[in-house]
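so my prof wants the structure for this chain in the tokens format not the other one, which i didnt know existed until like an hour ago. anyway here's the sequence
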Amino acid sequence: MNLLAAFQFLTILPVKRGFTSEQTGRSAAWFPVVGLVIGAILFGLYYVLNLVLPSSVVNGLLLAVLVILSGGLHLDGLADTIDGLAGHRTPERRLEIMRDSRIGGIGAVGLSLFLIIEYVSLNSLPDKWVPFTLLLAPAISRWAMVSAIISYPYARTEGLGKAFKEAVGRSEIIIASFLTLLLAVILFPMAGPVMMASAWIISSLAALYFKRQIGGLTGDTYGAINEIAFVTVLLAVNVLAFKNWLL
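here's what i got, hopefully its the right format
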């Protein structure tokens, strides 16, 4: 049941509706599984599209599919976070801006830069490592959200993100971490844990910055952390591949 709730929250895939806030919150334990399923869809499309299109076009389409599958949820959070944190404002004003559904100029620029970095990073990978990265990166990035949820206070008194903060405990982070680490070791026996650690370090630094600016985290910053961790994995794979450490 919690797994279905995770799919409902993180994707546009059709699943049963009407989950309680507690079920939605506890579904965080299965976020990496949702990431793996998303990655598996990208994995399959990668091989199909490469039959008829050049790899650079395929990589752009895969990122577009990734955005569509997630309903733009995390990118929306990233844009709102950038808008709220830009400039010199009080924490209260930052939170007010982040609640606004409209995207500002700074948010649009930041969002565009993230997408460019994601595309260039994916397009720069050696072909043999792209499929494995497509499977692992979405899982690690969604695990990073679970880690942030349990590790940092929630900045608002209400909001959808609060359901996760109130429900995520030791069992949820243990399950999510075990599943992610298992996948990382299977796909990249030596380098997988390094990628996971890299994503955790960078996303934790981002979370600390968010906490300093607004007093905690919000649903928007959870989405931003997902995107930050995703980019970190792509960059980590590039570094390891460039140094010939992926064998």
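also thought this was worth mentioning. The chain has twelve helices and no strands.
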